[in-house]
Amino acid sequence: MNPTTKANAPHDRRAATLVMACVGVFVAYLPVTTVSASLPAIQRALGASTSELAWVSDAFVLPMAALILTAGVFGEVHGRKKVYQAGLALSGIGALVALCAQNVQVVWAGQALAGLGAAALMPTTLALISHAVPDPRERGRFIGLWATALTAALALGPVIAGTVLNHVDWRWIYLLPVPASLLASACGAKLLTDSRAPGVRRLDWPGQITAALTITALVYGIIEGGAASFSDVKVMVALSTAAVGAVAFVLVERSSADPMLDLTLFGSPAFTATTLIAMISFLGLIGFFFALSLYFGLVQQLSTLDAAWRLLMVTMVPLVLGAPVGRLVHRVSPRLLIPGGLLVATVALLTLTDIGVHTSFGSLAWRLALLGLGMAFVITPMTATAVSSVPFHQAGMAAAGNNAFRQVGAALGPAVLGALLTTRAVDALPGHLTDAGLSGRTVQHVTTLAEQGGIGAVGGADLGADTPRVLGALSEAFLDGLHLCLVVAAVLTLLAAAVGAVLLRRPTHTAPPAIVTPRPGAAGESPTGTPAQGHDDAGSLAGSHSGG
Fold first, then answer.
1. For residue 122, what are the CA distances in angstroms to 81, 260, 325?
2. What's the pTM?
3. Which residue ranges traverse the bilayer (predicted)?
4. 166 phi and psi angles, rounded to 5 deg
5. What residue ranges do the domains of the chain occupy?
6. What are the residues facing 531 on neighbouring strands?
7. Backbone dihedral angles phi then psi of residue 525, each to the nearest 5 degrees
8. What is 466-482 written as a DSSP string?
9. pLDDT in tens, 8-36
10. Topology (CATH) of 11-204+256-506+521-545
């Protein structure tokens, strides 16, 4: 090999790593909006209730929220390439299971497997880039491209789903991840170099188990409580389990020699602020998207592709503005950027509270674009502030923790707002049925149907000559629930802005690495306690771009 070839080899390896990381995160995140846009079609085909539809979304998000921290540590201990390959395998298998589904329970299983794959791919793809590109400044450009791939998956998901559903059965929305996972796995086996974190790091199984138990019990309790009653025994047991699990998690992490999430991070007001903002804002926004996709299908009777163009108005704005906002992070205070963006998002949500059955695309487009504009000024600065607000050696954990809490909010969103939507719509339905001139017997029959099977059961029922009036009343009842969801989402977003305004006052952590005395054996450290090169400084940059 001549000298020129030798010089080009590292650059070729970095380019190959970037391509594989981008493909991995694209495969991981494609189900998020592909499935969200297809929820009305899934509901019609499988006769799923609103609570069952919420589990379709949460079956994917829950494993990601519960395991994303542990997956990152597992890659550091056992090899990032191995975890990357495992993530691709799980994503492909999950898509294949859902592709063969004949009932909603099998869809849940496929979504859960895909969520496990996403939990493995999300931190591992970033870590592979960080290892391949040791120069922090150059690494930022690579991670920016990685973030673009992630955001592109979110933006293209609805369009892919709409195109598929215009021609074939809904199950085929799961086809693309299967060959993509196989191809990426085969290429990754040849092109990627395995790596581990320097220093000693152990898996925190007690913390992992208590975290997964808490998150799952909480989401289950909220979804089932909204579908049935919060006084139901199983709901009360679930919520009590979540409360006990949360206390147990705190106690376990405080006593652990190598915690999954070091609770001393919350000693930083800025880290606490960004973590709360991530969870609260995504609870409101992901819950809103869940309700909005049902509005397009049940109320406006749009095809999935027509709904996709509307959802694209939200996702395209952060995709286009991601790079410019990334440059603003170092020039404008996060105390202005983050609360300011959240206030814009709040205004956008409030402007949507007057949408009706016949609201036009043009009337919706500017409001959805305004919502995307607000979030564009929140997503990137949020994680960048989190990792810059803690000591240097904890930057990687701060980025992972911020991502994990964001996923918790995303899991709670469909659960909370789906429960509110169902409860309000079912309560309002009898009045709208009476206003439509339907008989008392029909009102009672339709109300019972809604209480037992959810509003989706009413939408799919054949009630003969009364069907048009029932569907009209159902649309009005759904809009009552949707308007409540929009108000709640706006209040949550405003609350997140208030948290940012109050807690983002102190300057972020600026102490140089040399004066930090880290705990021996922490993530990203060498055995001597000094920050490991190519790992935690990567965490800071990775976190600043990983908010898509």
1. 13, 16, 22
2. 0.76
3. 15-33, 53-74, 86-106, 112-133, 145-166, 172-193, 205-223, 235-252, 273-296, 308-329, 336-358, 364-387, 408-426, 481-504
4. -75, -15
5. 11-204+256-506+521-545, 205-255
6. 525
7. -110, 155
8. GHHHHHHHHHHHHHHHH
9. 445 667 888 888 989 998 998 888 888 88
10. Growth Hormone; Chain: A; (1.20.1250)
